[in-house]
Amino acid sequence: MDQHPKSKQPVSPPFRQLVRNFLIEMAIYGVLLVGYFYVALRFLGEPLKRLFDQSLLFYAISGLILIVVQAVVLEFITSWLFDFLGLNRLTSG
User: Which DSSP string corresponds to 8-26?
Assistant: First the structure.
């Protein structure tokens, strides 16, 4: 971030720009999640059902792994898109 010439505090982007970027990010997340839902339902639905019927412990572990992988991939894709489009993100730090 740029610093204001008379102070040591960084200059933050305008509020309207942050809100616009937040809404763009939510739209991207929404599209990606809907796509993930249909892909997971189509390709993982039956194997996960069989795993649930056979071993509840492995089903739970698999579910947790899928949640973590989904979060990492989703964050990677949205970060890449924001960098590619040159949009600011609301972050602390």
Answer: SSBPPPPHHHHHHHHHHHH
**DSSP at 93:** -
Q: Rounded to 5 degrees, what angle do the CA atoms 36, 43, 59 make?
A: 90
Q: What are phi and psi for residue 51, nearest 5 degrees?
A: -65, -40
Task: Measure the CA–CA gap between 13 and 49, rounded to whole angstroms.
Answer: 47
91 secondary structure, DSSP code = -
Question: What is the SS3 assignment for 87?
Answer: coil
CA angle 7, 82, 76 (to 5 degrees): 115
Q: How confident is the model at residue 46 (pLDDT cuts 50, 70, 90)?
A: very high
Structure confidence at residue 58 as a pLDDT band (50, 70, 90) = very high
Domain residue spans in the chain?
Answer: 15-85
Cα–Cα nearest to 75, from 42, 17, 28, 6: 28
pLDDT digits (tens, 9 = 90+) for 73-84: 888 887 888 788
